[in-house]
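Milestone M4 deliverable, item 7.
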Amino acid sequence: MSTSQMAVWMDHQEARIFDVDAADFNEKTVHSVTRHVHRHPKDAEMKIRNHPDDEHRFFREIVHQLAGADQILVLGPSVTKLHFIKYAHAHDQGLAAKIVGVESAEHATDRQIVAHVRHYFHADAPRLGVGSTH
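Output delivered:
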């Protein structure tokens, strides 16, 4: 039986999800909710904030796209990846248990990410999930 190994590279604007095997890969992109905010000049000092559930909607779609993965590597340049892991632990513990690694990674091409993912999953023995007790 083959193990489904997936990776998600994310920042606050998008998540690029890679389903990787030895010969090929598929990539899907999930975009976060972005809003065009027109503010009066006197409001310029106010922080622009997204709707409180925007991040959760973004994460729910990522979880949906990761369905079927046996092992997941989470990558990204910002704290969004950590917020996603916290969300997974709170809302989908089954998926959270499949997260085998979290790494900081700047923007890269699809091919660079796929090469890194193949090396990550095949350089050593299979990894256990972050929340695993094995």
